[in-house]
């Protein structure tokens, strides 16, 4: 998997913050979901985005047994715990972010979008599938792990893709983007047409 990462320089616009990172197995893009000054938290938006992105990337790579939305829920809980007692996470202006992520598991690509952002899956011959996150009050990551259950998630077979792009929008402007290119690999094994027997089960 080849990755190209583009992050808009946050110094160009004080209301736009974004963070992107990738490994050979996973990619994460996070961006500020609001231009409203952060309230209730002394750490600031940049701190929140970095912690959220790093923890999510670690979860996606270290816990293949956990669903991708569950990994986000774990990440939100871990990041919230780092705030400490001095931060009021119930404040209306507590840091809020959009999150776009994906990971490779064997023959599949799993993806997630929560908040303003999009995942585009590129198929051979030119067609593109486009997935976005939910709208409304459930459209940003704050401090409630339960919000992860509202993310748009899905799975695509790697052999049907030539690449993918992940974009998180910071307040309506592309804050960061990761473009992935998949090298052709062997097709997944076809299901066996023979008879199989197991302990206590029988498949005709």
Overview of this protein structure:
This protein has helices at residues 45-62, 68-83, and strands spanning 2-7, 18-22, 26-32, 97-105, 108-114, 117-122, 128-132, 152-157, 163-170, 173-181, 196-198, 201-203. The chain has 204 residues and is of the alpha+beta class. A hairpin with a 3-residue loop joins strand 2 (18-22) and strand 3. It is globular and about 50 Å long. It starts with a strand and ends with a strand.
Element layout with pairings:
Layout: E1 2-7, E2 18-22, E3 26-32, H1 45-62, H2 68-83, E4 97-105, E5 108-114, E6 117-122, E7 128-132, E8 152-157, E9 163-170, E10 173-181, E11 196-198, E12 201-203
Helix pairs in contact: 1-2
Report low-confidence residues grouped into runs of 5 or more. Answer: 9-15, 191-204
Q: Can you count the beta strands?
A: 12
CA-CA gap between termini: 39 Å
Residues in helix, %: 10-25%
Q: What fraction of the residues are assigned to beta strands by DSSP?
A: 35-45%
The major beta sheet can be summarized as: 5 strands, antiparallel
Shape: globular
What oligomeric state do these chains adopt?
Answer: single chain
Average of the residue pLDDT scores: 77
What is the count of DSSP helices, taking H or I runs of 4+ residues?
Answer: 2
Determine Rg (CA atoms, Å).
19 Å
Give the strand order of the largest sheet, numbering strands 1, 2, ... along the chain.
Answer: 1-10-9-6-7
Helix-and-strand structural type: alpha+beta
| H and E order | EEEHHEEEEEEEEE
């Amino acid at each position: 998997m080849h990755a190209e990462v583009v992050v808009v320089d946050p110094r160009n616009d004080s209301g736009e913050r974004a963070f992107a990172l990738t490994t050979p197995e996973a990619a994460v893009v996070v961006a500020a979901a609001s231009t409203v000054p952060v309230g209730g938290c002394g750490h600031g938006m940049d701190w929140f985005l970095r912690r959220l992105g790093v923890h999510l990337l670690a979860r996606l790579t270290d816990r293949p047994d956990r669903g991708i939305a569950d990994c986000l829920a774990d990440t939100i809980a871990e990041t919230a715990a780092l705030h400490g007692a001095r931060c009021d996470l119930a404040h209306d202006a507590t840091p809020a972010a959009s999150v776009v992520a994906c990971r490779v598991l064997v023959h599949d690509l799993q993806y997630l979008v929560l908040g303003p952002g999009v995942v585009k899956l590129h198929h051979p011959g030119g067609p593109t599938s486009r997935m976005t996150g939910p709208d409304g009050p459930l459209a940003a990551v704050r401090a409630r792990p339960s919000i992860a259950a509202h993310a748009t998630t899905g799975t695509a077979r790697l052999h049907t893709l030539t690449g993918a792009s992940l974009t998180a929008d910071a307040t309506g402007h592309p804050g960061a983007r990761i473009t992935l290119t998949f090298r052709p690999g062997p097709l997944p094994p076809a299901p066996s047409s023979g008879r199989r027997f197991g302990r206590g089960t029988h498949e005709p």
